[in-house]
């Protein structure tokens, strides 16, 4: 039998209670547990409809993103369980999840553990109290140590990641450069093994020049603290680079599930619809949810 191809899996969960700082296209805003359950069921239906289609693939890394994936709650475990039934997944394949600390509790953590989430990328946006309350309208900054110490036990493992915003206006009376510097310094003092910097958008955004200065300031602090930058906007402690991102950067084949997901195999790329309602209603029907199919040039390994 021919060797299997190594692939990544991206599951997109385009849910966010409040996305005004990033303004991501296709995001469905607001908290609705019934909607989250319906979406998780739709993703499972898409995965199961593809049973047998990827028997020649071996999954090396899984990313749950596209929004705040932890908003799916117990559905995270249901989705990953369906993946494990449908695809061959390496035993050590990391599972990373874009998350909110507001979603972590005694009720949800068992499901995240069942999904074998290996790193929680908390979309805090800031760790500086001055601009945290402007950028993050969902989480309570005071809860972060409790989540890290008592749920993740991040002092003993590499399960903590952060997503921070840069390129945002400073609250009145504060210094924007000092604000982002303090966030980077707080991350450097934490047990985080991975940091992602994302540019602010919409009404909160500043000029390209100011955004670049903020990015460079945060980058300098993180690198001085021992992080390395290995892709644009991605920083990791030594040896803790994200396998999913490394494989994506070198053009590895990838399976995508969810609204807006992209599957790339053998030079052909198929893109799912970003229409949330259409996806939920027809997710098991490839023809109904496929927005486009086209050839792509192979990237150098």
From TrEMBL:
Residue ranges of coiled coil: none
Query: By its UniProt entry, which InterPro entries does this protein fall under?
Result: Coproporphyrinogen-III_oxidase, rSAM_sf
A GO cellular component annotated for this chain's UniProt record is: cytoplasm
| Example GO molecular function | 4 iron, 4 sulfur cluster binding
SUPFAM superfamilies per the record?
A: Radical SAM enzymes (SSF102114)
Provide the GO biological process annotations. Answer: porphyrin-containing compound biosynthetic process
Name this polypeptide is given: Coproporphyrinogen III oxidase
State the species of origin. Enteroscipio rubneri
């Amino acid at each position: 039998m021919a060797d299997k191809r190594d692939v990544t899996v991206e599951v997109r969960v385009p849910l966010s209670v409040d996305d005004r700082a990033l303004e991501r296209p296709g995001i469905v805003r607001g908290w609705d547990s019934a909607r989250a359950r319906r979406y998780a069921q739709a993703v499972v239906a898409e995965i199961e409809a593809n049973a047998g289609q990827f028997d020649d693939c071996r999954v090396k890394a899984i990313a749950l993103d596209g929004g705040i994936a932890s908003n799916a709650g117990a559905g995270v475990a249901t989705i990953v369980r369906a993946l494990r039934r449908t695809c061959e997944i390496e035993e050590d394949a990391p599972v990373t999840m874009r998350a909110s600390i507001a979603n972590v509790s005694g009720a949800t953590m068992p499901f995240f553990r069942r999904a074998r989430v290996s790193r929680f990328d908390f979309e805090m946006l800031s760790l500086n109290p001055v601009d945290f309350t402007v950028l993050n309208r969902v989480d309570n900054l005071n809860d972060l140590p409790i989540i890290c110490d008592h749920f993740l036990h991040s002092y003993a493992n590499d399960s903590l990641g952060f997503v921070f915003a840069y390129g945002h206006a400073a609250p009145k009376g504060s210094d924007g450069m000092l604000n982002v510097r303090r966030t980077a310094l707080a991350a450097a003092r934490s047990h985080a093994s991975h940091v992602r910097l994302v540019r602010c958008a919409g009404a909160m955004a500043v000029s390209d020049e100011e955004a670049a200065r903020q990015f460079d300031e945060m980058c300098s602090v993180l690198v001085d603290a021992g992080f390395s930058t290995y892709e644009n906007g991605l920083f990791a402690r030594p040896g803790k680079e994200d396998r999913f991102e490394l494989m994506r950067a070198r053009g590895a084949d990838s399976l995508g599930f969810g609204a807006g997901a992209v599957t790339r195999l053998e030079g052909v790329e198929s893109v799912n619809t970003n229409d949330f309602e259409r996806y939920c209603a027809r997710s098991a029907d490839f023809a109904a949810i496929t927005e486009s199919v086209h050839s792509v040039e192979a990237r150098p390994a």
